[in-house]
Amino acid sequence: MEMNDQNTKPASDYPNPGPGYPPANYPGPGYPTPGVPAPDQNSKPASEYPNPGPGYPTPGYPAPGYPTPGYPAPGYPAPGTQPPYGYQPPPGAYQGQPGAYGPPGGTYGPPGGAYGPPGGAYGPPVQNQPGVPASAWMPAPPAIPNCPPGLEYLSQVDQLLVHQQVELLEAFTGFETNNKYEIKNTLGQRVYFAAEENDCCTRNCCGAARSFAMTIVDNMGREVIKLIRPYRCSSCCFPCCLQKLEVQAPPGVIAGYVKQNWHPCLPKFSILNENEEEIFKIKGPCIPCSCFSDVNFELTSLDGTSQVGRISKQWTGLVKETFTDADNFGVQFPMDLDVKMKAVVLGACFLIDFMFFEHTGEKH
């Protein structure tokens, strides 16, 4: 018997397929018709695509929070432009996150996030004393012609407060340490910081009569005033070897002197300029003892008839006066006085402190 070739049988002779099967000569859903090339999906316009599901962006648009292609992120400069001085990008999704616009790390410019000199600002960095906030210092005044650097502060004040710091080791043991002082204005802002420079042997063997060098710095850490006191006698029995303090402002340049004048009963001093010419006189009480009241040393004219200022040793309380030598002083001078002479009057305050009120080591 001759067998028929099934492959030559026309499709119309086949019975209809069951449910779920496509009709004969028709492709299945999603398949191209035989002999017809499949359409290019990339050429299909975006409008013909179905809407994406919830949470997905519309085709051709960036996801929420991301910038449109070709445009810079919000808060960032346009590509190819120079960021302005001190520019920092705003915090947010574009600061150092993967896929965000902008340079690695999320910031333009040099390390530190700002353009400019090291430290983020022009001028020398503020070198405050440890533990003292910057707001506690007196703002730096503008430069004044022919004024020694650092003495501009004195041009704005007519009164200074000198507070000696309490040294616990000295208070409990009587072991003399280097004195330290805060110099403030009437608002309580620190103007200068003074520190004694001395060795242990000199401090504890010579006591209050010891020689010393006192360094005074401003709020930028600059050494603006230097006080030098040689070892001398302060007794009225030796008028040829009385106290003398040299004031340098700036260090190395003499601004003036404080010289003790001989008197059998009263403490007297002269304020001298750099040429050792007398400018003012200082006269204290016969017994410079701080007992429940202030002790005043008057700053007067050369003839002693008019008072122009004052150095006051302030009473600080019975306990502090008895067990420590941490003294408080008030220094007053004319507002229009030359800043060099103001520095010399300030130096007289330290000399008076050492001569009459530096007594803790002796009591112990």
Automatic annotation (TrEMBL):
<dbReference type="Pfam" id="PF03803">
    <property type="entry name" value="Scramblase"/>
</dbReference>
<keyword id="KW-0472">Membrane</keyword>
<comment type="function">
    <text>May mediate accelerated ATP-independent bidirectional transbilayer migration of phospholipids upon binding calcium ions that results in a loss of phospholipid asymmetry in the plasma membrane.</text>
</comment>
<comment type="similarity">
    <text>Belongs to the phospholipid scramblase family.</text>
</comment>
<feature type="compositionally biased region" description="Pro residues">
    <location>
        <begin position="51"/>
        <end position="92"/>
    </location>
</feature>
<protein>
    <recommendedName>
        <fullName>Phospholipid scramblase</fullName>
    </recommendedName>
</protein>
<keyword id="KW-0449">Lipoprotein</keyword>
<dbReference type="GO" id="GO:0017128">
    <property type="term" value="F:phospholipid scramblase activity"/>
</dbReference>
<keyword id="KW-0564">Palmitate</keyword>
<feature type="compositionally biased region" description="Pro residues">
    <location>
        <begin position="16"/>
        <end position="37"/>
    </location>
</feature>
<dbReference type="GO" id="GO:0005886">
    <property type="term" value="C:plasma membrane"/>
</dbReference>
<feature type="region of interest" description="Disordered">
    <location>
        <begin position="1"/>
        <end position="116"/>
    </location>
</feature>
<keyword id="KW-1133">Transmembrane helix</keyword>
<feature type="compositionally biased region" description="Gly residues">
    <location>
        <begin position="102"/>
        <end position="116"/>
    </location>
</feature>
<dbReference type="InterPro" id="IPR025659">
    <property type="entry name" value="Tubby-like_C"/>
</dbReference>
<keyword id="KW-0597">Phosphoprotein</keyword>
<dbReference type="InterPro" id="IPR005552">
    <property type="entry name" value="Scramblase"/>
</dbReference>
<feature type="compositionally biased region" description="Polar residues">
    <location>
        <begin position="1"/>
        <end position="10"/>
    </location>
</feature>
<keyword id="KW-0106">Calcium</keyword>
<keyword id="KW-0812">Transmembrane</keyword>
